[in-house]
Amino acid sequence: MTGNDLAEAGAVKIIRFVGLLIFLLATAFGISTEVRAEGRVALVVGNATYLNAPPLRNSKNDADDISQQLRRLDFDVVDGRDLDGRGMRMALTRFAQKLKGSEAALFYYSGHGLQIEGQNYLVPVDAPGDEGSMMPFDLVKLDEVIEALGYTSGIRLLILDACRNSPFAKRVAQHGSTRGGELTRGLARIERTQGMLIAYSTQPNMVAADGTGRNSPFTQALLQEMQVPGLEVGTLFRHVAIDVNRDTQGRQTPELSFSLLGEFYLNSQESDLDAWKRLGPSANADALKEFIAKFPTSSLIDAARARIAALEITSERERLIREYAEKERQLRLELEQAEAGFRKTSAELDELRKRNEARRVDEQHVMPQNQSTDQVSAANLPPASEKKEQEKKEQDRLAAEVTALEANKKRLEAERASLEEALKEKLFKTQSDREQADRRVAIENARLPSTATEKRVTTAPTHQRSSANCQELTARAQLGDIAEADRSALKLCR
User: Who contacts 44 (Cβ-Cβ below 8 Å, separation ≥6)?
Assistant: First the structure.
């Protein structure tokens, strides 16, 4: 062994001792006020301002935004920005302390990273700047991060946006084992990842773009997907890979190493698609309105509105039928009462007429046999009896009441016929509206199978409309339910 090799071996031992000493001091003096977090814990590091290299445009923003989003998802976050080597190792110590009893541990890093002889390293901000002056122990070995993640008995997630074109590769001191091009750009694929998910911002041995906006392409896509409820983490990172590949026109494709034995959700809230499936075809209007309020930007909103319209039309139809039934019941009751009154009054009138006729006959029989009726003087007749007058008035009254009851009966029958006709017209209109609403529901239902994958299309946009899409636009136009933006698209179908 040469003197240089002995010196390097001694230096490595010193670094390991210093790391252990930092860990013990951190434990003894309580650097972390919370040792245990029974949930989700994350360490988010963003190294942007390097002492001996140009600053990275996005790394601090990336780390800030990821940290904020993780807190929204109930992660206990340990933050580190622009950390030197000692700071990175102390952050790992705090992170490891929190992991006992946790269900998930996540490490996110944005900054420079490189590989030496297949070993991956993260570059602290105080890395040496002179060519040939930097030793591997000036860096933070990724194995140290993996070792810290091992303190959880739950899910382990390692997210690396660290494959940028690093100026530090030329500065690593060359020795016997690293001559002949052993310094490789990008990061190497990590082996032995059982029970871990590792997401790289690009393919092994490739470099990733830093981005021109607030975030790098990888982190921007990750932030967007983390906001989507109900995405299993493997699916989430596959979506990220598709988004980055699309947004960079194929120049960058993230890689996913996935060996989790169970499902895990960064955003465990119910997704709009899952909520829609749970609602099922029998959902009422109130449940659909709650869906719209909960997922106002969902692509399923039109389907929900179409179903609400159909349900409301059905409800209106049922209301009309109930209203008619009640009015018809009241009219039938009034008609029955009118008929009963008519029969009763008619019977009374007939009875009164019979009595009058019988009395008249009796009066004729009591007259003298030799005296005709027209010879009977008024003096011989009983005085104008009040009883006769009352009977005459009663007969007239009953006759008028019979006439009124008969007229009322005809009016009620006409009103009943009119009500039935009005109901038929209203039911015909609601039936037409319902059929139109059912067509809208069918159109929206036809779109559902592609809803979950629409945003995953990786091919370039084309001006050629598919026949299925043209059919949908045509159907919407026929229903008068087409947005102004789709009218120009409809022209391409013709």
Answer: 63, 66, 67, 70, 77, 78, 79, 80, 108
CA atoms within 13 A on the CB side of 255: 16
pLDDT digits (tens, 9 = 90+) for 259-285: 887 889 999 877 788 788 888 877 788
User: Taking 50 as the threshold, does the pLDDT of residue 459 lie above it?
Assistant: no
Q: Which residue range(s) make up the domain with 490?
A: 459-494
From the list 135, 129, 121, the residue with the least C-alpha distance to 14 is: 135
C-alpha closest to that of 105 among 197, 232, 230, 224: 197
pTM of the model: 0.55
Same domain, 490 and 405: no
Mean pLDDT value across the chain: 76
Boundary (domain end) residue, out of 258, 289, 304:
258
**Six-digit token pair at 468?**
């299925």
Q: Could you read off the pLDDT of 346-381 as tens digits, one per residue? A: 787 788 778 777 777 777 776 655 555 555 455 555
Q: Which residue has the tokens 């622009």?
A: 82
What pLDDT is recorded for position 167? 66
- Domain check: are 286 and 208 in the same one? no
Q: What gap in Å lies between CA 291 and CA 307, rounded to an integer?
A: 12
Does residue 219 sit in the same domain as residue 311?
A: no
In a domain, 465, yes or no: yes
Q: In whole angstroms, give the CA distance from residue 148 to residue 141.
A: 12
**CATH number of the CATH domain containing 180:** 3.40.50.1460
Residue 32 lies in a domain: yes
Phi/psi at 88 (nearest 5 deg)? -65, -40
Long-range contact pairs involving 455-460 (C-beta distance under 8 Å, separation at least 24): 456/239, 456/242, 458/242, 458/245, 458/246
CA dihedral 355, 357, 359, 363 (to 10 degrees): 180
Report DSSP state, residue 114.
E
Domain membership flag for residue 54 = yes
264 in a structural domain = no
Please state the length of the chain. 494
